[in-house]
Amino acid sequence: MVEGKITEQQYVAAMALHQSRHSRIIFLICACAGIVAVAIWLLGMWVSAAIVLLAASIGGAIGHWLWDRLYIPARAAKLYRQSADFAAPFKIAWDADTVELWSEKGSWRRSWSEYVKRRENDELVLLYINDQLFNLFPRDMFGSEANWKSFKEQARRVPTRTTLPPPAE
C-alpha cells in the first residue's frame, strides 16, 4: 500500500498525456495538407488553392500548438483548483486482480480488466474507465522504485488502445 496526493503539476501533465495522441494526429493531418499544397503548387495546378491549403495547414499547426501549450495547461490547472478531491491524500493498494483506493472522500475497488486502456510515460500512468475518464497514478506517490515497477507491471496488462466488450444480446 502506498499513499500520496495528486498535485496541480501532475494533473496538468496527465491532461497533456491524455491529449497527446490527438495532438499527434492533428499535426500529422496538417503536415499532410502542407505537403499536398506544396505538391500542387510545384505542379502549377490550382496555385491559389495550393496557397490557401498551405496557409490553412500552417495556421492549423500553429493554432493547435498554442492550444496544447497554453489552453490545455490553463484549463487543467483551473479544473484542478475547482476540485478539492484532487488535493486530498489517498492510499492505493493493488494485487494481480484489483486496484483499491481509499481517501476521506470514499473508496473504490476496480478489477484490472475493467480498465479499457492505459497511457503512460516515465512519471504517470493513466488507467481509463472509458475513453474520457481516467484514474491518475503519479510516480511520486509510490515511494520506492520497486513499488512503481510492481504497479506498472500490473498496469501493463491493460491494453494501450480502447477495448470494447462484446455487445450484449
Task: Note down, in words, how this protein is organized.
- The protein has 169 residues and is of the alpha+beta class.
- Helices cover 51% and strands 20% of the residues.
- The chain contains four helices and seven strands.
- The protein has helices spanning 8-43, 47-82, 84-87, 145-155, and strands at 2-4, 90-94, 98-103, 106-111, 117-120, 124-128, 134-138.
- The strands form two sheets. The chain has a four-stranded antiparallel β-sheet. It has a three-stranded antiparallel β-sheet with strand order 5-6-7, with helices on one face.
- Strand 6 (124-128) and strand 7 (134-138) form a beta hairpin.
- Helix 1 packs antiparallel against helix 2 (47-82).
- The longest helix is centred in the first third of the chain and has 36 residues, at 8-43.
- The radius of gyration is 21 Å and the shape is elongated.
- The model has no long low-confidence stretch (mean pLDDT 89).
Key words describing this protein structure:
169 residues; 7 strands; three-stranded antiparallel beta sheet; four-stranded antiparallel beta sheet; alpha+beta; 51% helix; elongated
How many β-strands, per DSSP? 7
Q: What is the average per-residue confidence, as pLDDT, rounded to a whole number?
A: 89
For the sheet with most strands, the description reads: 4 strands, antiparallel
What is the approximate shape? elongated
What order do the strands of the largest sheet run in, or round the barrel if closed? 1-2-3-4
Rg calc: 21 Å
